[in-house]
Write a sequence for this structure.
């Protein structure tokens, strides 16, 4: 495979070498043979992040937002965080399932000890007010009514996790 073909495969798998190795072994082997430096892989991830942001502005896709969050998870980039915050207002919140999906991305899907998600990213970057704003944003998304028992259960877990995070970031004024 050519350099450009490997880059396209890298983009298809959102920079996940695990997914590439599992789904497209030839692309993964070519990636390894080309000995792509870590700095280049990080630059590709950032390029993909900006590309997804441009697409999200047009489509409002919650899936694009989630992919952007995943790409930003280990970067600790203030620029990415600010774009993600803006992106929250571009997402089409078409139903409670989308609300839950976005809340989970903001809160982080890992254990609290991992400090994943946008709230901990904001807090760890010193953006304390933004962390509080994100908690308030989640509260609005998670307190919608739904007859879907699975979504209701997810929203209830989101609210519980929100309370736990609010105590970890010393935000005692989170709504009761």
């Amino acid at each position: 495979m050519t350099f450009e073909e490997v880059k396209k495969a890298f983009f298809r798998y959102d920079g996940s070498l695990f997914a590439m190795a599992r789904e497209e072994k030839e692309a993964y082997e070519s990636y390894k043979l080309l000995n792509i430096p870590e700095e280049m892989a990080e630059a590709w991830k950032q390029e993909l992040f900006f590309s997804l942001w441009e697409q999200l502005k047009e489509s409002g896709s919650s899936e694009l937002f989630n992919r952007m969050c995943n790409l930003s998870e280990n970067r600790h980039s203030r620029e990415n965080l600010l774009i993600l915050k803006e992106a929250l207002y571009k997402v089409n919140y078409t139903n409670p399932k989308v609300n839950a999906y976005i809340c989970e991305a903001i809160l982080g899907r890992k254990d609290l000890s991992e400090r994943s998600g946008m709230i901990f990213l904001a807090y760890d970057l010193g953006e304390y007010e933004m962390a509080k704003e994100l908690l308030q944003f989640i509260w609005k998304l998670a307190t919608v009514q739904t007859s879907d028992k699975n979504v209701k259960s997810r929203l209830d877990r989101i609210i519980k996790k929100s309370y736990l995070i609010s105590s970890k970031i010393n935000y005692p004024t989170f709504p009761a």
Q: What stands out?
A: Residues 37-168 form one domain.
